Amino acid sequence: MKRILNNSITLFIMAVILMIIIPLPPFLLDLMFIINISLSVIILLTTMYIKEALEFSVFPSLLLITTLFRLSLNVSSTRLILTQSGNAGAVIATFGSFVLQGDAVVGFIVFLIIVLVQFIVITKGAERIAEVTARFTLDAMPGKQMAIDADLSSGIITENEARHRRSNIQREADFYGAMDGATKFVKGDAIMSIVITAINFIGGVIIGMVQGGATFTEVLQTYSIATVGDGLVSQIPALLISTATSMIVTRAASESSLNVDLTKQIKSQPLVLIISGIVLLAIAIIPGFPKPQVLVLSSILIFLGTRLLKTKAADDAAESEQYEKSQDGEPSTEEEYYRNIDNIYELIQIDPIEMEVGYSLIPLVDEASGGNFIDRVVLFRRQFAQEMGMVVPSVRLRDNGYLNPNEYVIKLKGEEIARGEILVEYYLALDPGNLTGQVDGIETIEPAYGIPSIWITRDKKEIAEIYGYTVIDPLSVLVTHLSEIIRVHAHELLSRQDLNQLISNVKKLNESLVEEVVPGIVSQGNLQKILGNLLKEGIPIKDMETILETISDYGASVKDTEMLTEYVRQSLKRTITHKWSTGGQIKVITLSTDIEKLILNAISKNEKGSYLSIEPELLQNIVSQLIDYINKLKSEMNIPIVLTSPFVRSYFRKLLDQFYPKAVVLSFNEIDNSVQIQALGNIAI
User: Fold this and answer.
1) Where would you find the membrane-spanning parts of this chain (predicted)?
2) 531/592 same-domain check
3) Residues 6 or more apart whose Cβ sits within 8 Å of residue 362
4) Do 560 and 643 fall into the same domain?
5) Contact by Cβ (8 Å): 410, 417
6) Does 506 lie in the same domain as 480?
7) Does residue 274 contact residue 302 with C-beta atoms inside 8 Å?
8) pLDDT band with cut points at 50, 70 and 90 for residue 608
9) I need a surface site. Which of 196, 210, 227, 383 has the fewest CB within 10 A?
């Protein structure tokens, strides 16, 4: 039985197709017409009671099935009308007699009005709405996806909720796209009904006159009843389905069913009912107007409006009283508030990233004031996740009255890490070093990269660009500074919760690898240190599978996280090469063999790890040479890269981090063979 029910739609469609071929007796055709009317009523009522369109996601397919069903009934009824002298069942005869009322002309006019209302008004409107809704839904998909990513990264929703919302967005786009095409079936059905009606009437009259045995008036009466009845019995369900189509494509911003929404929203405006009743009373003054009907209706509207107005006033008073009670229940002083020990814990919560701004910068960051700072941060979060494989936590925004009006502060885990100053009504013009002219402005230093710059007024923007300045708006200055701070300190922002999320993502694709490595070979704490080491030097951690596979290969014998990091870096050599090479080559500064031997001999180990012990004069000599090379090669190397042997790399990186942290230190094993290495300098003793 269950199998039959599961395949009932398939059987129904096959039966519909057979109805087009096999003649049906009148009593069976009557049953099919009744089923058609019942289905159309069910579909219309369903569209009125759903809250959102996706609750009736099968509607486009159902629309096609019901259209095919109606057309098959039209074919069957036409066959009976033309072959049985207009006898096509009791349903058609009843509809035709009831509408015609003995007057064929009036009956045809009523039928044509119904068809035209459906075709021109309802079907045409539904088709247009479906087309526009489908287009807008597709255009809005990227923004909705970004909003979900923002809510997920800020912790407002869980991964399961985000997955469910993404699925709904995709289903919604598919639904409205299908509705855009399905409305064409309704339009075609309306056109076909007019054609079938003409065929039934003209063909029936011709056949009746050719067969003889009846006068022209009798033939006209017989086939007009059958034609109008057949047209109505198919067009009334079609009209209901068209109305249902319009209902479902206009279900926007609804919180409940159509009945509940309509009642609730009309009740919320009782003055509208009262004013409408008064307008009706004024209309009753017009001579010849039916006063009893107008007076009854206006009295009802004024009565309902007055009752609803009193009810609304009582509800508002109750809400106000409830609010006052809730306010009375709150502590009146700060000391009383902090008597509750749970409230004290709110004081020690620390946000991973926090930005405080002066009051002049509030319009830049506040969405209510038109600022799109949050949108820019969301875009950066998405870009950073795609580039580095890590999701940046949400940024907490606060206004700080103790800051200068144009000043902002960036905090990391509650401590200030950077600050800057922005002139909101100005543009920042950066000097790239090859200017063809000078522009007057307020001299400053670009906060993210330390580039000499000037603040210029808006009217000087175009001339500054002509002279070769790089001109950026104040919001871009703020976002760029924040993004650079996040890049530099990404390793500090990688929390244990973020690590769990990364592991969960890998587990979906390679569960056996995760179960083998974590925590069997490496603990979550050590894995977090390894990933932090990579992020600290700007190495993406997107390829988590390769990272875990490398740890699986070496983790059993190597327990030092620094050494494991070196092995992971070597496994990620394609990623590292792609990040630091340009045009198939990589320009570097190398270390001489003597310096590398010196560093290896200077390695000392204790319980806490390894460190270098080099004489201060020699250390100063190495660093001075490196800085001289960096200054000489600025035009050829945007980012200074030092190339060493694998064993020396990590120690030299720690050494250099104290004097020039922006330099990149790579080993030979971290560069892919497809890239040409070009040594621009060599540091020697």
Assistant:
1) 6-24, 31-50, 56-73, 104-122, 190-212, 232-250, 271-289
2) no
3) 369, 371, 399
4) no
5) yes
6) no
7) yes
8) low
9) 210
Query: Given this model, what pLDDT does residue 238 score?
Result: 78
Same domain, 477 and 504: no
Residue 359, token pair as written in the block: 């009051």
Give the pLDDT confidence of 478-511 residue by residue, as tens digits. 999 999 999 989 988 888 888 888 888 888 888 8
**Cis bond upstream, residue 519 (ω within 30):** yes
User: What is the SS3 assignment for 174-229?
Assistant: HHHHHHHHHHHHHHHHHHHHHHHHHHHHHHHHHHHHHHCCCCHHHHHHHHHHHHHH
CA neighbor of 396 nearest in space, from 385, 383, 407, 412: 412
In this predicted structure, what is the pLDDT of residue 253? 46
> Can you give the residue range of the structural domain that contains 529?
494-571
* CA–CA separation, 89 and 80 (whole Å): 9
- What's the length of the chain? 685
Instruction: Report the domain count for the chain.
Output: 5
CA triple 23-24-28, angle to 5 deg: 175
Residue 410: per-residue pLDDT: 93
Tell me the CA distances in angstroms from 330 to 324, 335, 337, 344, 683, one per residue in order.
Answer: 10, 12, 8, 16, 69
Percent of the chain scoring above 70 in pLDDT: 81
The model carries a pTM of 0.52
Domain annotation covers residue 342: no
> Mean of the per-residue pLDDT values for the chain?
79
Same domain, 541 and 590: no
Q: Reduce the DSSP state of residue 500 to 3 states and report it.
A: helix
Sign, CA dihedral 151-155-157-160, equals positive
In a domain, 330, yes or no: no
Do both 461 and 511 map to the same domain? no
pLDDT digits (tens, 9 = 90+) for 638-662: 788 889 888 888 888 888 888 888 8
**One domain, residues 455 and 316:** no
What does the block give as tokens for 192? 């076909």
Higher pLDDT, 391 or 16: 391
| Assigned token pair, 623 | 């660093």
What pLDDT, on the 0 to 100 scale, is given for residue 358?
87
The more confidently predicted of residues 121 and 91 is 91
The single-letter code of the amino acid at 233 is V
429 in a domain, yes or no? Answer: yes
Alpha helical stretches, state H, 7-123: 8-21, 26-49, 59-83, 90-100, 104-116
**Domain membership flag for residue 168:** no
Report which of residues 429 and 208 the model is more confident about: 429
Most distant CA pair in the chain: distance in Å? 128
Q: Is 443 helix (H, G, I), strand (E, B) or coil?
A: strand
Residues 294 and 233 in one domain: no
CATH number, position 648: 3.40.50.12790
Residue-wise pLDDT for 272-316, tens only, equals: 778 777 877 777 777 766 777 778 877 887 888 788 777 777 766
Give the separation between CA 500 and CA 494, rounded to whole angstroms.
Answer: 10
Contacts of 553 (CB under 8 A, 6+ apart): 567
Sorted by sequence, the CB contacts under 8 Å of residue 478 that are 6+ apart come out as: 361, 364, 365, 373, 408, 420, 422
